[in-house]
Amino acid sequence: MSATYERGMNAFKEVLDAPIASFFSSCVHCGLCAEACLFYTETGDPQYTPIHKLEPLRRAWQQEYTLLGKLARLTGLAKPVTDAELAEWSPLVYDSCTLCGRCSVVCPVGNDITYMVRKMREGMSAAGHAPEGLVMATTRAIQSGSPAGVKWVTVQAQIKHVEAEFGFKVPVNLENADYLVLMSSWEILNYPEYLGAVGRILNKAGATWTLAEDAYEATNSGIQIGASDLARELVGRIVNAAERLKVKCVISPECGHAYTAIRWEGPNLMGRPFGFEVKHILEVLDDLRREGRLKLKGTLDTPLTYHDPCQISRRGGVYEQPRTLLNQLAPQFKEMSDSGVMNWCCGGGGGVSANERAEPLRMTVFKKKKAQIEELGVKTMVTACANCRVVMEEALEHYHMDVEMLGLTELVAEHLDES
Amino acid sequence: MSALELLTWARGDGLAIALAICAFGILLRLFEIFSLGRKADLSRPRETSPGSGWRTIFSRSLPPPGLLKRSPVTYIGGYVFHIGFALTLFFFVPHIELVRGLTGLSWPGLPMQVVDIAAVAAILALFAVLASRLTNPVKRYLSGFQDYLAWLLTLLPLLTGYLAFHHVVADYTLMLALHVLSVELLLVALPFTKLFHTVSVFVSRWYNGDIFGRKGVAS
Ligand code: SF4
Ligand code: SF4
């Protein structure tokens, strides 16, 4: 038995808790979770049935924590999980699950399968079966501060650019600000308009805000790979900066998994509740609007729709805010089928977009979104997650679809009433 | 052993043993679940949503948007079976009499014709879901011995009960004994097979509702 295998099995034992035990006990093999999962609906391949992705974890639970399972193992009736099986499951656990959470709202016995996949990845990465792309992204994040290898100098260049374009100073390491603004690598590299947009909106609202030199990256590949120690290290950077600068609220950028990482997993990784608030940028925009500090003018009169990023709507509870904003800004805003908490994933969440091995599958499952867009017939899609946006822009190109993507924050900034 | 002796044993010692194993098994399984514990969630809930777990226990009985169309046999078959089975189990007058004899508790039953329809519907639904299990690629892929065993153990009490009630088989006493025995088999297997979902579903749905509820998502 190799040491990594042992570590993996120990991690399985570690993550198994009462909810997971109840979930495995309740599963009746009804197959409904498959009907909820785009990896099954778009491929028709039953191996992508959500609950099946957890089979090694289920067996570990049964043989470790149930009387009959233990007896079966002792008498040789049940075989322990092998390292080869873990390796075999790696594509199922990492490539064919975006942690989108759709199966978890559908399972009739209430199994939160997504929660279990997240936990199973702890054992998989400990056993050395995480995909290389994700391992590399995580290593880069630990070493350079960002999974894409974006360093502070790159951010500085962007700050200069924003300052020149909009004529305001971007505060860095400012103490006692209302907001600490974070970004994701995607925003730094692909969508530089985000920083300018947030700055203009917050300035106009009369809020104080800052960037932090040692905590600008919001994403957390430690969570996606399933390595809590690395995830803790990454989220710890943000927590330290927020506490050092004594900010009131940390703004998670337009990135779904970053929001989950800081807002929901963060305090649990750190082992203590935070003294500051964590909000997604959409929540902040909605707060400002309600307080009368966000004045908008004009509308965008093209037919458009909104893609709910899974971690922000279904796994995060932010689904009304974007709609309030869009109803104000876009008179021709139309909902996709299955919108809000029942949305379909872009296909690249949960680390799938950083995992090259998964790319062909990711393109295949995009057929779901493609069908949704075509059904609606719009040419503009707004979203609030840079990862969703990159993934969908790639896939739209792959399918030669003439659909433009917009970030909601950017759209709001473009319609700011500057008078 | 004559049919009468078998029936007497089944109604007496047999039932006592089966109930004891079932009760012990349920307690053991619940202990196995809850003893694993659950770490407190330190993130600030979006809203205090007391009761989200309890609400999900009920709300999860309804199909989410779009699913009924994708998997009609699973839902409709599931409803018809569960409701038919429950009506037969709890509202068949002889069953109520049995409970009254054992515990003194009783409640009004349903007319025989209604229970008869419920039982037939439940049996037909069982065959429909079996057909679906054998033909639907996902269910077929997922299913193992246990799934088919659970199906058979559920069918037997309904079938034997129906045959006994309608005196289809000449030896009524034997049929009744077989009916009681099949129920006992079901009781004994319940805690240790997938049939345990009858108990654990309340726990798993509660956790699900609690997890989603604190994020401000009704599920
Ligand atoms: S939907 Fe739930 S009960 Fe049905 S197979 Fe999937 S996990 Fe099991
Ligand atoms: S979380 Fe989403 S991608 Fe993962 S198994 Fe469930 S439905 Fe499929």
Features:
heterodimer; A: 419 residues; mainly alpha; Fumarate Reductase Iron-sulfur Protein, Chain B, domain 2; Glutathione S-transferase Yfyf (Class Pi), Chain A, domain 2; Rossmann fold; 3 domains; four-stranded parallel β-sheet; three-stranded parallel β-sheet; 22 helices; 6% strand; globular; B: 219 residues; Fumarate Reductase Cytochrome B subunit; 74% helix; binds iron/sulfur cluster
Structure in words:
The complex is a heterodimer of chains A (419) and B (219). Chain A is mainly alpha-helical. Chain A has helices at residues 3-15, 18-26, 32-36, 38-41, 55-65, 67-74, 83-95, 102-106, 113-126, 132-144, 152-166, 185-189, 193-204, 221-225, 228-244, 256-270, 281-290, 320-329, 359-365, 367-376, 386-398, 408-414; strands spanning 179-181, 209-210, 249-252, 277-280, 304-307, 380-383, 404-407. Chain A is globular, with a radius of gyration of 22 Å. In chain B, 74% of the residues lie in helices and 0% in strands. Chain B has 10 helices and no strands. Chain B is globular. By secondary structure, chain B is an all-alpha fold. At the A-B interface, helix 2, helix 3, helix 8 and helix 16 of A face helix 1, helix 7 and helix 10 of B. Residues 36-37, 39, 50, 53, 97-103, 113-114, 117 of chain A line the site of one iron/sulfur cluster (SF4). The site of one iron/sulfur cluster has 15 residues of chain A, from helix 8 and helix 9.
